[in-house]
Design goal:
Ribosomal Protein S5, domain 2; 6 strands; 4-stranded mixed beta sheet; alpha+beta; two-stranded antiparallel sheet
Length: 280
């Protein structure tokens, strides 16, 4: 599901983005010195989200980055300056060294001591806030997707009911057509055997079982949508079951009307399946 969240902590800023994906795929971009926190951050993410491609960015908060400025190691600076003077005295046409170049030398600038436990707590608290905001945004999108899926389910339910109502008439037409063809052939056959074969053909063309299973799956989808927690993968499975029954019904279609309705069933199921891919 598509969402974006930004959360500011005392010293850090988290930005978390998610887009649609069938499984959970998370990536973290954080300063190298805090890479040790990534396993715990991943566990926090997995405990909150179950689907989507999620990108997590951690940056230092520029407003508080200078709260504890670095200091200069004067002894190291003097030692490097002496070395520079010696090099200038020995060499020829040595380019002058600027003070900024000296400050860049390893060991000259000393970072203030860091309380890693405090930093870790700040990073995780800020990340938790970002996940809460992301989840809230995904929940709003999920509510809209649920509304769309329920509308398609209502249409599907009505279509199944229409096919069920038409089944007796369609079966009668099938038997009448078969009897007419047998009469046209003018074959000398046992009437009892003919009747038995017609019954077998009618049974093969009967879609009552498929219609019952479609109704069962529709009811289960509604129940799943009303449930709590992650439901996307279960809905995926139910969409596959709906499609399987629709394919069977289509293969048994003995009339043009039912063939058209079978196609409409597949269209509705595919529309729902596309939306379900985005549900947590």
């Amino acid at each position: 599901m598509t969402a974006f969240a930004r959360a500011e902590g005392k010293h850090f800023v988290w930005e978390v983005r998610s887009v649609n994906q069938r499984h959970l795929d998370a990536s973290f971009r954080i300063p190298e010195e805090y890479r040790v926190l990534e396993p715990e951050l991943r566990n926090m993410l997995k405990g909150t989200l179950h689907r989507g491609k999620v990108e997590c960015f951690l940056r230092r908060n520029p407003e508080t980055a200078s709260d504890q400025p670095a200091s200069v190691n004067e002894e190291a600076l003097r030692r490097i300056a002496r070395l520079v003077d010696q090099a200038a005295a020995i060499g020829h046409n040595v380019a002058p060294v600027s003070p900024l170049d000296l400050l860049r030398w390893p060991g000259v600038m000393e970072e203030p001591a860091k309380d890693f436990d405090s930093i870790s707590a700040d990073v995780q608290a800020c990340f938790s806030q970002a996940l809460d905001e992301l989840t809230a945004m995904r929940a709003r999108e999920g509510s809209e997707l649920e509304r769309v899926v329920r509308l398609r389910l209502d249409e599907l339910e009505k279509l199944v009911a229409t096919v069920r109502e038409q089944m007796p008439t369609l079966n009668e037409r099938l038997l009448a057509r078969m009897k007419s063809r047998i009469e046209e052939l003018a074959v000398d056959a046992d009437p009892g055997r003919i009747e038995t074969e017609l019954v077998i053909l009618a049974q093969k063309a009967d879609v009552q079982e498929e219609l019952d299973r479609l109704d069962t799956h529709i009811a289960e989808i509604k129940k799943t949508l009303a449930g709590k927690g992650a439901v996307g993968r279960r809905l995926d499975f139910l969409m596959q079951e709906l499609n399987r029954e629709a394919n069977t019904l289509s293969s048994k279609s003995s009339a043009a009307d039912m063939s058209i309705q079978a196609v409409e069933l597949k269209v509705l199921i595919e529309q729902m399946r596309e939306q379900v891919q985005n549900i947590e």
